[in-house]
Every structure is written in structure tokens, then in C-alpha cells.
Amino acid sequence: MRFDEAYSGNVFIGSHPNFEESEAVIYGMPMDWTVSYRPGSRFGPARIREVSIGLEEYSPYLDRELREVKYFDAGDIPLPFGNAQRSLDIIEDFVDKILAADKFPLGIGGEHLVSWPVIKAVYKKYPDLAVIHMDAHTDLREHYEGEPLSHATPIRKVADLIGPTNVFSFGIRSGMKEEFEWAKENGMYIAKFEVLEPLREVLPKLAGRPVYVTIDIDVLDPAHAPGTGTVDAGGITSKELLAAIHEIAKSDVRVVGADLVEVAPVYDHSEQTANTASKLIREMILGWVPKRR
């Protein structure tokens, strides 16, 4: 993909037309090749952009406007349908180029496996990286039915790469017993069921460190986000997730990249999920992009 021209499709509201002048780059990862239940998250990035036109550009939470941050929407990465490994390689190369230009990468998925190549790229630039992971699921399997490239495996891959003690998961309410046991045995932090209060306890421990944040929309209760591939009852509210984003924004961590994944618009005709996702992205832009330095 080229960065020297603006994306010709729908762009996220308020996006800047020039890559070079931008601080951050929004990009879509339209992949759902490995999902085990319901496909459709490959359509998430495009729909989140489309509904963003309904957003106000001002955040009353942060008292900032989108025009205060320059971000470039690079559109969706062209990925070969059904080819998981090639798709992951393309994503990693794409993010390498964003980081080489000293931009903040803000990805939109797509299934959660797309976070794996992004974090690999970010880790190359920030070897003392920590990862904050918000999700309903542990995603700590080594494989799913014999397949190591699965939406159930990305956080295990990340933990193996950067060390389990550098991964902090929040809102987890589903996973195999063996996954929880592995996390405990290897010193990986998992906050079951809740996000905000345990996050407040962890953030001071990450002060000054570069942090990548990955958010699976299914950390929200299905009442707040029905449009996702693997819904799981008992989740947090959209109000709590917004508060968690703001908690990170006011902390002393250096957010150096982020993603929001697993929005599958076809399962939510009200478009509540896509609209919520676009608002979350607005808050991530305004709260986190200025914190990367």
C-alpha cells in the first residue's frame, strides 16, 4: 500500500489527508480466516469508518477535539482471502513501515489473530514492551484443533515473544482451565471479569514503559456489543470500557500502538456495536496518541 496518497474509500471522521504530516495512522485488517464460530469481522473496519460520520468530533470526557490530533486513514490492508500466514506477514510489513516513519499505529480488525503480527512489529522497535489486553477470552491456546494460527492463540504467541510477565489481561471470563493454569504458573497477570479497578492497580507498575493496547470488542457484554463473532455473557459495560481508555490516557504509561478488533457488523442490525467501536476509537486517538512520546 502507498502512504503518499489518501485512501479513496470512506475514511474515519476527521482524518488528515497527508501521511507525512500525521502523528498516527489508522488502518484496517479485514481478516477472519481462522474464526471458529461466526465469520464477518473482516467487514468491521469499513463499517466502523462509515458510521464514524455520526460522531461528534469533540470528546467531553477529554475536552479535546479530533482536529487537535493529525491522523491519516490508510484504508484496509489488501489481504489474500483464506491465506492466514501470508496475511499476517503482510500486516507485519505494513506496520513496520508505519513505525519506521515514527507514526502511532492504530489498527482495526478483523479477528484477534491480526494483533499478533502488529505486536511483533512494535516489539522490534520497543524491546521493553508491555501489552494490555482487554477481552472476554484468554486467547492463550497453543493451537485450536491442531491449528496454531487461530483467533484463540494470539495472546499466547505474544506472551511467548515478550515474556508472560509483560502481558496484562483484563475482563477475562472464558477460556480452558489449562490456559488459566498456564498463566498462573508463568506469572502472567489475568484479571477475571473486571477491567477498570484492576487496571487502576496495574498502571502505576507500567509507568514510563512503552505499552501496546489490544481491545477485543467482546470484552463488552453482548447487551452492549452484539455484533461480534464469539459473544460471551457477563461482560463489562461500554461506560466501563470508556473509563478504562481514559484511565490509561491519564496514567504515566507510554502508549505506542493499539488496536480494536472483532467487530462483525452483520450480527447487529442496530449498528450499536460499530457505533460504539467508532466512539472508542475517537477516545483512543485523543487520549493515547499524544502519550507516545
UniProtKB/TrEMBL annotation:
Q: Supply the InterPro entries for this chain.
A: Agmatinase-rel, Ureohydrolase, Ureohydrolase_dom_sf, Ureohydrolase_Mn_BS
Name the coiled-coil region(s). none
What are its GO biological-process terms? putrescine biosynthetic process from arginine, via agmatine; spermidine biosynthetic process
Q: What class of enzyme is it?
A: hydrolase
Function recorded in the entry = Catalyzes the formation of putrescine from agmatine.
SUPFAM superfamilies named in the record: Arginase/deacetylase
Catalytic reaction(s) noted: agmatine + H2O = urea + putrescine
Record-given protein name? Agmatinase
The alphabetized UniProt keywords are: Hydrolase, Manganese, Metal-binding, Polyamine biosynthesis, Putrescine biosynthesis, Spermidine biosynthesis
Q: Where does Mn(2+) bind?
A: H112, D135, H137, D139, D216, D218
Please give the pathway this protein is involved in: Amine and polyamine biosynthesis; putrescine biosynthesis via agmatine pathway; putrescine from agmatine: step 1/1
Any one GO MF annotation of this record: metal ion binding
Superkingdom of this protein's organism: Bacteria
Query: Which Pfam families does the UniProt record give?
Result: Arginase
